[in-house]
Amino acid sequence: MRRCYHRPMPYEHGPEARRLPEWLRRPIAPPGRQLAVRETLGELRLHTVCQSAKCPNQGECFSSGTATFLIMGDACTRGCRFCAVETREPAPLDPDEPRRVAEAARRMGLMHVVVTTVTRDDLVDGGAAHFVAVIAALREALPQAAVEVLTSDFAGSEAAVDAVAAARPDVFNHNLETVPRLYPEVRPGAGYARSLRVLERVKETQPDLPTKSGLMLGLGETAEEVVAVMRDLRAVGCDALTLGQYLRPSKRHLSVAEFVRPDAFAELEREAKALGFRGVASAPFVRSSYHAAELAREG
């Protein structure tokens, strides 16, 4: 297969920043339902990964009336070098948060609810019981809606993975984020084998539960390494895959090693489908929860 990654182009924040390539420039989203979404989130004191992680799709998603809920606070116990979520001591869990997440989803009329989390290594179960409570609240408030969870690795606790999987979300997502070689630099508090095991364990206990994972490209990986990760994911039964461009949130984070061209994303999508993924989203602006409902229908 012809590899069409191009020569790395550095990108830095600040006055000397280079312009993004044309395929990473997009118009400002129309207002749409943005105000209503922001008011709902503010009134119910909820966080979203859209805001905390500085997602480039925030305007588009809020405008269309959707958002990805970020539970268990806005502070993470790890310091992944790609992520804009703050690393600091988190607050205690809020037992009323599951109800408020469900209320927000009800007000927004969501039919596919995506819930993700900060990593909570300070909790014995990594927050698994809280995830279960959120799923239960959503099922009660919106019985017809699909629920997709994007979890942490629960510090390798299979009991925690089992608890969330047994709550029967409609999709269980855990992102590998990058290739094994780059883990020490990109995800120093995580482990490639441990993350892969999360997805494998879900299929062992809930074989019919769709699983999903995602990678960021442009951190210095090769196309061959990405394909090798795809094969690893298929080997543990992963059903759906997202591939998107890493964009540096601030000068404190890892630099972009390469802006991957759209044709490279398209080629990787073809390879993923050939390997047997039932749902694939591969493009520069793709993120884990971007158009998640459409991807779930594919899978």
Give an overview of the whole structure:
By secondary structure, this protein is of the alpha/beta class. 36% of the residues lie in helices and 14% in strands. It has an 8-stranded mixed β-sheet, sandwiched between helices. It has a two-stranded parallel ribbon with strand order 3-4. The chain has one domain (27-298): TIM Barrel, CATH 3.20.20. The protein is built from 11 helices and 10 strands.
Write the layout of secondary structure elements.
Layout: H1 34-43, E1 47-48, H2 49-52, H3 58-63, E2 68-71, E3 75-76, E4 86-87, H4 97-108, E5 112-117, H5 128-141, E6 146-150, H6 158-166, E7 171-173, H7 183-186, H8 192-205, E8 211-217, H9 223-235, E9 240-245, H10 262-275, E10 279-282, H11 292-298
Parallel strand pairs: 2-5, 3-4, 5-6, 6-7, 7-8, 8-9, 9-10
Antiparallel strand pairs: 1-2
Q: Give the spatial strand order of the biggest sheet.
A: 1-2-5-6-7-8-9-10
The unreliable regions are 6-16
Please write the CATH class name. Answer: Alpha Beta
Which CATH architecture is right? Alpha-Beta Barrel
Return the CATH topology: TIM Barrel
Output mean pLDDT.
89
Helix fraction, binned, reads: 25-40%
Number of H- or I-type helical stretches: 11
How many strands appear in the DSSP assignment? 10
Sequence of secondary-structure elements: HEHHEEEHEHEHEHHEHEHEH
Question: In one word, what is the shape?
Answer: globular
Distance separating the two termini: 25 Å
Q: Count up the domains.
A: 1
Estimate what percentage of residues fall within beta strands.
Answer: 5-15%
CATH 4th-level superfamily = Aldolase class I
What structural class do you assign from the helix and strand content?
A: alpha/beta
Radius of gyration: 18 Å
